[in-house]
Amino acid sequence: MFKMFKKSVCAAAAFLLMASVSFAADSIVIKGSTTVLPIMQAAVEAYMKANPGVQISVSGGGSGEGIKAIIDKTTDIAMSSREIKKEEIELAKTRGGNPVEHVIAHDALIPIVHPRNKVSNLTIDQLSQIYQGNITNWKEVGGEDLRIVAISRDSSSGTFESWDHFVMKKTKVTPRAQMLASSGAVTTAVAKNRYAIAYVGIGYLNKNVKALSVNGVKGTAETALSKEYPLSRELYVYTNGEPVGEIAKFIAFLKSKEGQKIVGKVGYVPMISLK
Fold this sequence. Notes:
Blueprint: H1 2-25, E1 27-32, H2 37-50, E2 55-61, H3 63-72, E3 77-80, H4 86-94, E4 99-113, E5 121-122, H5 124-132, E6 149-153, H6 158-168, E7 178-180, H7 183-191, E8 196-201, E9 210-211, E10 213-214, H8 221-226, E11 232-240, H9 245-255, H10 257-265
Parallel strand pairs: 1-2, 1-3, 5-10, 6-7, 6-8
Antiparallel strand pairs: 3-11, 4-8, 4-9, 4-11
């Protein structure tokens, strides 16, 4: 009787172990950029619908948080709106990791203002002077006599680092700027504030905010792909080593025609022609 009980316990334990391994193999954790988040949420929904045995969890927090998670091995996929830094790669390698980059979309970093703002174009230098706090009134750049409220992403954001690369060029953002933690929060803040200016990825544009041209060029899918628009960039995901199994299948889906249709549908710029 005891031997039969022991065999049953062992069989149950083996079954549970196999089940947990199987579940882990079909579970994917994704963390990082709130810019990439709309693409990922839509792609995950479509992928899980087509693959009902797969469970995928997605959370934002910023590109820096996503890359930190891939270094710490607390995520399977990191979303990022900037390239991983050399020192981050080196840190990952000291912990036995090997971050591998995958480009999944193109983007244009767009300055946005309230729809009632009369300004329609700013130069890169004007944007820099506004965010340094040297230009403080809209009348200085052809607008009304209203003070400027600069809204920025927080420093853990890849979008913040892209803005630094393209616009600030290592100069400091004024301490008077409001620092917000997500692209959604930035868009909402500008929609409610006639004085405000901010910047978001092209996928966050909506009728509640007004997009500005930069150096006389409008940010569109075409000008982002051609790099005519001066604030064009790529969007990335990172894996720890070359992806395998379900992770590899999901990234292949992101790059496929179906996945790139999702990129275009949520407002970003596909890497391939969808005609």
